[in-house]
Amino acid sequence: MTADASRGAEAPPEFVQLLTPEGERVEHPDYDIDLTPEEIRGLYRDLVLVRRIDLEAVALQRQGELGIWASLLGQEAAQIGSGRALTEADMAFPTYREHGVAWCRGVDPVNLLGLFRGVNHGGWDPAEHNFHLYTIVIGSQNLHAVGYAMGIQRDSAEAATIVYFGDGATSQGDVNESFIWASVFNAPVVFFCQNNQWAISEPLEKQSRIPLYRRASGFGFPGVRVDGNDVFACLAVTRKALADARSGQGPMFIEAFTYRMGAHTTSDDPTRYRVAAELEAWKLKDPIERVRSYMFKNQIADQEFFDAIDAEADELGRDVRKRCLALPDPEPLAIFDHVYAEPHRLMDEERAQFAAYLEGFEG
Amino acid sequence: MSTLTLAKALNEGMRKAMEDDPKVLVMGEDVGKLGGVFRVTDGLQKDFGEQRVIDTPLAESGIIGTAIGLALRGYRPVCEIQFDGFVFPAADQIITQLAKMPLRSLGKLKLPVVVRIPCGGGIGAVEHHSESPEAYFTHTAGLRVVACSNPSDAYEMIQQAIRCDDPVIFFEPKRRYWEKAEVDVSASADSAWLPLDQGKVVRPGADVTLLAYGPMVKTCLEAAKAAEDDGRSLEVVDLRSLNPLDVGLVVESVRKTGRCVVVHEAPVFNGFGAELAARITEECFYNLEAPVLRVGGPSTPYPPSRLEDHYLPDLDRVLHAVDRVFAF
């Protein structure tokens, strides 16, 4: 089982990298990026803040305030890099782990917590942020993204969609169907696969015997693997893929080669299925540390800047926690709201019956 | 007025909807040049182009999943599932996504997607081509489920379904596709049309209520006619909408007649008739002269076509049930 599915430090995968784990800028013949110091500082800030949102959410779950949480720890660069490549007109279709992309789209983090706290199933307006609702069923959103992209084609709009999914999702029928549809209709969609190496407890070898990005060629469109812990490379590769899609060049598959540092969700225990050495190897590739190191070395920021970001993260964490705890439980009769867009007599009837039942407890 | 088959009435209804609203799309397997295996979409691609009448790859989940995406972008897709038994590969997209996305968004999203399903047996088809999967979808909150039974309703209901902001599962009785009737194609959807969520008494009667939808409406009308010779007056109700159910119409009829027989092609066990029988028991208990009886398929897979005449409710089985409700 050596089929290029190595998850540790050994056997380096073929991928696009612009910033090494040591914080050195490197060149790539096909992808480059020219970022201003301000843009780099902005990316660093995003990385730190979304990690802090995530850590706060994990803590809230451990304290019983959230039912469950799907941590993004380790995947910040993949999400911020790709998320910052989007224009306002582009539409993003996430799984349930895209807290970093949500951040880039301007979704209030507390809205993400609402889903995991159990006060709603989403609740933000997808059209307001061009960030679709979290989708729990694995890979379903791929088809929605392609359909949306077909709509963009019919509107002759200057836009594309990006859809997020994991390595496990590539085994799903819907994901494979989405590749076929996108290819056949030349839809402006970027498939952004975060290969975090593990589908709950199942390693990549249980999903694929070839590197995931190579699957694209079988469907008739290009695929590329990018260092998913390198925010510069993720931004550069996604930016180009989206531009190509918008200009009519069809779909693109991006495999962001990364690692889920925590559990799949707070419900599982990764020590049961993976070895500590693997985690240690990936710690050395941390997406935040390498940017920090690069910025220090190149005098893009000083200690004062880093301290200020840390303080901002602390404040954000406190704010998210406070507002999460203040989220009110919905009224009981909200069960019947929004099931249908138009009046529906069964909803009316059952709502009235339930209301009458509840009224029996009053007074 | 035009004399149209049910298939042609659907075709004219879709054509009208596409003319009225450029956001209406038709999509499915073979819906373009071929015009669908039943020719229900005949000529639409020729007149509206490949961007609006989309021949899709052969994958039902993909059809519904991409239709959801198109609806999110502001389009109103009308999907054709080629045969009833092929809707199951799309069941995940219909049940976990299409039905629930508006709720997940707290009402911010609307999914005006129509899923057309030619349903039922009686055409001598092979396995998986003659099923009645309505109960799966009526059980799923967030979907509307309707069944047309005649050309005039087909023409009106398909347009109403397309205009509806909710997802609609639209059942078409495939063995009635070629039956003709007068259809007023000059009228456009207006207040004169019966709303999509209402049923209709298609034959008034005094002694027994026959509840039916889709292909069984005609069978029940024939039974009512035959029963007349025995001096029995049967009222036939075409439910048309299964979710929401027009409970008021059903209750009114059963209270009047005191007896009720439910007729559908699907297996009786846990079928849609069970919901009807339970509702009627709750609402009409003191009006009933006999228990509500159900006529439908046995709880078996749909049989090979040489046996389907035994499986499908026919006039004799309906009348047999009528005899039983009189015998109580």
From TrEMBL, chain B:
Residues 4-179 form the Transketolase-like pyrimidine-binding domain. SMART domains: Transket_pyr. Keywords: Oxidoreductase, Pyruvate, Thiamine pyrophosphate. Its cofactor is thiamine diphosphate. It comes from the Bacteria. The lineage of its organism: Bacteria, Bacillati, Actinomycetota, Actinomycetes, Streptosporangiales. SUPFAM superfamilies: Thiamin diphosphate-binding fold (THDP-binding), TK C-terminal domain-like. InterPro entries: THDP-binding, Transketo_C/PFOR_II, Transketolase-like_Pyr-bd, Transketolase_C. One of its GO terms (molecular function) is pyruvate dehydrogenase (acetyl-transferring) activity. It comes from Streptosporangium lutulentum. The keyword Lyase does not apply. Pfam families: Transket_pyr, Transketolase_C. This is Pyruvate dehydrogenase E1 component beta subunit. Its EC number is 1.2.4.1.
